[in-house]
Design goal:
Largest sheet of chain B: 6 strands, mixed
Order of helices and strands of chain B: EEEHEEHEHHHEHEHEE
Number of helices of chain B: 7
Strand order of the largest sheet of chain A: 3-4-10-7-9-8
Strand content of chain B: 25-35%
Structural class of chain A: alpha+beta
Structural class of chain B: alpha/beta
Strand order of the largest sheet of chain B: 6-7-8-3-9-10
Number of helices of chain A: 13
Strand content of chain A: 15-25%
Helix content of chain A: 40-55%
Radius of gyration of chain A: 32 Å
Number of domains of chain A: 2
Oligomer: heterodimer
Largest interface: A-B, 27 and 34 residues
Chain lengths: 409, 234
């Protein structure tokens, strides 16, 4: 059976206004949905960024002392010992930074002391004793710091001699960026213009604060001991099994308060919650974009159903005549589906151009990545399927028009 | 060519049954030109729609070109309508969005005919009705008589075994009606079988044979007039 494309096009030319309105609606939907789906993908990718840490095992407690304390280092060790004594705690450490926080420390890394511009300008820096074990990081090369490699961060801040770190653990991403053609392990790099040897490489460790796209794993760990009073403060980080997190959190707060009731609790959270809060804006944006896409698709589908129903009602007699002249039900069904396919195709072609235009605008105005080309055929298929699905009901109604309508109207 | 024996058509609602045709018998031979006459509501159009397989019947038998059609499914009925029957409607029933050429092409497309053969048949049919020069015109640009000629060309293009005409001149003035009737007579002379429903006694008189329908039954006008019958000019 030859396709009715030419007669359908001839017929559509006689209904230009309604056809063009539907084509524009499909084009706009195609353009917006292509870009929105791409942006949703970017947000979801961000939300699912691998942290490298044991997200569902980590809990955090942060305390602030009222007034300065002279014995803070000893008290910190006492706190850690108490926390490690809580049933269910696998490890406890005090760290200056945690993943998905809103603040952190960045350092630049050079490969030689006389290098003018750093090889990496911003590397998220983690301080604390036992970061690898506390976070549950996967050490892929080298080793963790030994006890004698640690220095107090407070001493470094005061510029005390011998307080600079001499070793560093970096992520695979940083190692590859520093030494793209070789192994970073055992190499010397310059941090704060001081040499440090790369003694270990971990698979992943997400930065402790917002990152530049593609640099979410630009992190390193320096062997610095921290205490709650050490400038940037410290967070007690404990690992436990996921089902014991709430209980251990309560017990940890009680234990710390018991040791020093004058302390003020400033943070009590699981890393999972901190991660969820960090990505809440991305989730909300993705949610709004999904809702917008859904609404657009529903409105477009309703437009197709509405116009299809109108045309079926308008052409009822014509359909009866076609049936009388030998059209089978399937021929009538195919006629309306082909008509919709043609309208959708015009809309999609126009929509692809509009999608590219919108993408270009977003690139220029908001420095977003350009819409990858494969989103266009995906959008086309989506709109074709939507059109065929939406037109099915009116097309089936058309196919059920009996041939006797040709004589009786 | 067309034989109906004891055919019945009943329209049923929840409260009433209406017999549109009852014990309806007719036999149209190949090459005949039969006019079916009768008053409004007598069942003429119902007969034509059943004869043209546009709707089904309730009882009896109907043989078309030697085939019993009561057991045919919807697709088979469509195929027979397309290949064996040509329709000429009172209201022309041209598709307003298509030009003359495309209108005549509609039944040929449903037959799956190749484009070259379609074009040949369409131009032959339009030549036959004298409208080849109007192939690119739309129905709205033609007079009523011309539109009916296009409809006749559409009916002829598929070389049907049977032409069914439902009041073919009902929407035309006298001069145009005469032209259309002459065309039908010419087609008949060339061997076509035509069944024409009309309430116009003058048109019916130009057919080879008249069949009069009253209250859903074929009546013999040589018998005494029945209570519902009207005078026939056949």
């Amino acid at each position: 059976m030859p396709m009715d494309i030419l007669p359908i096009l001839a017929s559509l030319r006689r209904h230009k206004v309604t056809a063009i309105l539907l084509i524009l609606e499909i084009a706009l939907t195609c353009a917006i949905v292509c870009n929105a789906v791409f942006l949703i993908g970017l947000r979801l990718d961000r939300i699912h960024t691998p942290s490298g840490v044991a997200d569902n095992e980590l809990i955090m407690v942060r305390m602030s002392n009222i007034g300065g304390r002279s014995d803070v280092r000893a008290r910190t060790l006492e706190d850690l010992a108490a926390l490690r004594g809580i049933p269910g705690v696998r490890s406890a450490a005090i760290l200056a930074q945690t993943p998905f926080g809103y603040s952190g420390t960045t350092s630049s890394i050079k490969l030689s002391s006389d290098q003018k511009l750093p090889t990496i300008s911003y590397v998220s820096t983690y301080f604390g004793e036992g970061v690898v074990n506390a976070f549950g990081l996967e050490l892929v090369q080298g080793r963790d710091f030994s006890a004698d490699e640690y220095h107090w961060l407070q001493d470094l801040n005061l510029g005390l001699p011998g307080s600079s770190p001499r070793s560093v653990i970096v992520t695979e991403a940083v190692a590859k960026r520093l030494f793209p053609d070789g192994n970073a392990l055992g190499k010397d790099v310059y941090i704060y213009d001081e040499p440090s040897r790369v003694i270990g490489i971990v698979r992943h460790l997400v930065t402790s604060q917002e990152w530049v796209p593609g640099q979410e794993d630009y992190s390193m760990i320096l062997p610095m001991r921290v205490s709650p009073d050490a400038g940037m403060g410290g967070t007690y980080v404990m690992r436990t099994s996921p089902d014991q997190r709430d209980r251990v959190l309560d017990a940890a707060v009680a234990k710390l308060k018991g040791l020093d009731p004058r302390r003020v609790l400033t943070q009590k959270s699981t890393l999972e919650k901190q991660r969820a809060t960090f990505f809440s804006a991305d989730r909300a944006t993705a949610g709004w974009l999904i809702a917008t896409c859904a609404a657009l698709l529903v409105v477009t589908a309703l437009g197709i159903v509405g116009l299809g129903s109108f045309w079926v009602a308008q052409r009822r007699r014509q359909i009866g005549v076609r049936r009388a002249l030998g059209a089978r039900r399937v021929d009538i069904l195919r006629y309306f589906q082909t008509e919709n396919f043609l309208l959708a195709t015009f809309g999609i072609v126009l929509g692809m151009g509009m999608a590219y235009g919108i993408s270009l605008f977003l690139v220029l105005q908001y420095e977003l990545p350009r819409l990858p080309a494969h989103y266009l055929p995906m959008g086309a298929v989506l709109l074709w399927l939507l059109g065929q699905g939406a037109v099915l009901s009116p097309a089936l109604r058309a196919a059920s028009v009996p041939p006797v309508v040709a004589t009786r109207g | 060519m067309l034989t109906m024996n004891h055919l019945a058509k009943v329209y049923r609602t929840e409260v009433v049954e209406t017999y549109a045709l009852r014990d309806f018998n007719i036999d149209v031979k190949e090459g005949e030109f039969v006019a079916v006459t009768g008053p409004s509501g007598s069942g003429k159009t119902t007969f034509l729609t059943i004869a043209g397989l546009l709707e089904t019947f309730t009882g009896g038998e109907y043989h078309l070109d030697g085939m019993e059609v009561s057991k045919l499914d919807d697709n088979a009925r469509s195929r027979i309508r397309n290949e064996k029957i040509g329709f000429i409607f009172q209201a022309f029933n041209l598709i307003p969005d298509l030009n003359v050429f495309d209108n005549v092409e509609v039944p040929l497309r449903y037959r799956g005919m190749k484009a070259a053969e379609r074009k040949q048949r369409i131009m032959d049919a339009l030549e036959r009705v004298g409208l080849a020069s109007r192939a690119k015109h739309y129905p709205a640009e033609l007079s009523g008589g011309q539109q009916q000629r296009v409809a006749i060309a559409r009916a002829l293009a598929g070389s049907p075994r049977l032409l069914l005409a439902d009041e073919p001149t009902g929407n035309l003035d006298t001069q145009m009606a005469r032209g259309v009737m002459e065309l039908l007579e010419e087609i008949h002379r060339e061997g076509a079988t035509i069944v024409m429903v009309t309430h116009d006694p003058e048109l019916a008189a130009r057919a080879q044979r008249n069949v009069h329908v009253i209250d859903g039954q074929v009546v013999d006008l040589t018998e005494e007039p029945r209570f519902h019958s009207q005078t026939s000019h056949a």
